[in-house]
Specification:
This protein has a 10-stranded mixed beta sheet, covered by helices on one side. Helices cover about 30% and strands about 20% of the residues. The protein has 2 domains: about 5-55, no CATH class; about 65-345, TIM Barrel. The longest helix is centred in the middle third of the chain and has 17 residues, at about 130-150. It has about 350 residues and is of the alpha/beta class. The structure holds S-adenosyl-L-homocysteine. S-adenosyl-L-homocysteine (SAH) binds next to β6 and β8.
Length: about 350
């Protein structure tokens, strides 16, 4: 093991082994774990009940992200501007759901190599996996931000019976392809669900993939959270042009993977469809979707395209969205339209590109 491991990246077993190997009592590992993951402590200074000799740093680093700033949208959405220890910048977005509840959109990579034609993140050349610590620290940073300005009154899960406030849903729909950072992502998810950590329920977490077919079942077997898949097209020709991944794993292969995805009864896979005006929003597209989704336990999320500087596409006409909803619902498919949030601060889907704040 690394001489100075990032303790925040270690699960409880690994942390315990490390703490014991360094000559400390076993129960200290749980204390440390609770400080880092339950109370979101950013440094040893806060860990008041740990003996001084454990807080010198010799055990390891308490890794994490630096918060460079927070941008706020007119709709209340907030974008956290974060930086890794290596100096890479990234964003995470918190979206108000009302009554003090927020959904957080989390990034899994610094850049993304999937190359989708309509996504700002794809235009960044740099691709780098975030560590476990960097993934989860986005949630801990958000918690500090939301607590810091009094927007949440109690820590999540503070007392039984309290209304849940703060970040209550996590969607891995920020920068990057989560399944392309499989090991760190799945470790991070287990840490976020840990009862001594943030204790997120498995239904409160959704991971979105471009459709990395070989990883999808493995993912379902590794962590029992919700799966979302970005379909975004109604035929291979269209999807090939929009999403290079389709040349490797065409629609029918992807759909068959979804039909056989291991999932509890009554659960659904979220199928995302970015509507690009004049490209994939025609009547024929709407007609083809139910055919494609036959046998897939799916809920469809229609996402109106969010234009960003330099993008070649436009948002669909509102009438097109209504047409799609109607067509899909009539085919018996549950359908939602994702309301664009945070467009004015470049925080909506597909807009996270590391551009400097204005
Ligand atoms: N790589 C994963 C996670 C990113 S999720 C995935 O592709 O699923 C981001 C979601 O926003 C995806 O469904 C993507 O198709 C969609 N998206 C990308 N760019 C967009 C844009 N400019 N406007 C609206 N949605 C966009």
């Amino acid at each position: 093991m690394d001489e100075t491991p990032d303790l925040k990246s270690l699960d409880l077993d690994a942390l315990t082994a490390h703490v014991v190997a360094q000559g400390h009592k076993k129960y200290r590992a749980l204390q440390l774990f609770q400080w880092m993951h339950g109370k979101c402590a950013a440094s040893y200074d806060e860990m008041s009940d740990l003996p001084k000799e454990m807080r010198t740093g010799s055990l390891g680093r308490i890794g994490g992200l630096t918060l460079d700033g927070v941008m706020e949208s007119v709709d209340g959405t907030r974008k956290l501007l974060l930086r890794t220890a290596a100096g890479d910048r990234l964003e995470s977005v918190v979206i108000p759901m009302g009554k003090g509840r927020w959904t957080q959109c989390v990034s899994s990579q610094v850049g993304c190599k999937m190359g989708c034609d309509f996504c700002a993140t794809a235009e960044m050349s740099k691709r780098k996996n975030l560590t476990v610590s960097e993934i989860i620290d986005q949630i801990y940073s958000a918690r500090r931000v939301l607590q810091g300005d009094g927007r949440i009154q109690t820590a999540k899960g503070a007392a039984e019976g309290d209304d849940e406030v703060g970040v209550v849903n996590l969607v891995f729909m920020g920068r990057g392809e989560p399944l392309d950072n499989f090991d760190n992502l799945t470790k991070a998810l287990w840490m976020l669900m840990h009862p001594k950590g943030q204790a997120f329920g498995q239904r409160r977490i959704t991971v979105s993939t471009v459709g990395l077919v070989p990883r999808i079942h493995e993912f379902g077997r590794t962590v029992p959270v919700n799966l979302a898949v970005s379909l975004n097209a109604s035929c291979d020709e269209q999807r090939n042009a929009l999403m290079p991944i389709n040349r490797k794993y065409p629609i029918e292969v992807l759909m068959e993977t979804l039909r056989t995805f291991p999932m509890a009864a009554r659960r659904r896979i979220f199928v995302e469809y970015v509507m690009l005006g004049g490209v994939n929003d025609a009547n024929e597209d709407a007609s083809r979707l139910p055919e494609l989704l036959r046998g897939v336990k799916a809920k469809v999320n229609l996402i109106p395209f969010n234009p960003y500087p330099g993008s070649r596409y436009r948002s669909p006409e509102p009438e097109r969205i209504l047409y799609f909803v109607d067509k899909l619902m009539k085919a018996g498919i549950q359908t939602n339209v994702r309301e664009p949030k945070g467009r004015d601060i470049q925080a909506a889907c597909g807009m996270l590109d590391g551009a400097k704040p204005l």
